Amino acid sequence: MQADQTVLCTLLAVDLNDYCYRVCSRCERVIPSDNNGVTSSSVCKFCKSKVPKLLYRILMSIATDTSVKTVICFDRAATVLFGCSADEFFHFTKLNPSTASMVNQVLDGEVFRMTLTRPHNRNAQHMRVASVVPLRSGFQPAIVTLTQLCSTTSH
Ligand SMILES: [Zn+2]
């Protein structure tokens, strides 16, 4: 059993309903949040730091030449797709509320080479994206395209 697999795939959809989680910026332990992703307390229980940060954790659907699957993409790989940190993206979508729904439009259909790994946790349902490489030569991270769209539509 085992082995990472590298696949060529097309991105079908990104689930942005719950795309990030909060960790302590000092010790990187997860800070639990309520259902809305906002917490009442942002103080780390472990090191008492009061500076949380957001990390990506995104479910996405991809199509390989043999199947369609849902995979989970954590911070490092997601940053390649988005072109900014989860914190930056979160603030960008707060300032430009319409952009969250546009992420799918700008990323859908992009072709990537992804390395998928089996989750360490046997109960986890989805393979994780260990790395992602855009294959289209004109690929732009989502934040770049969204910033361009915002500046053209606001005039
Ligand atoms: Zn901490």
Automatic annotation (TrEMBL):
Which N-terminal residues, if any, form the signal peptide?
Answer: none
- Which SUPFAM superfamilies does the UniProt record give? Nucleic acid-binding proteins
Residue ranges annotated for the Replication factor A C-terminal domain, each copy included: 6-117
Which spans are transmembrane here? Answer: none
In Swiss-Prot or TrEMBL terms, this protein is called Replication factor A C-terminal domain-containing protein
Organism this protein belongs to:
Microthlaspi erraticum
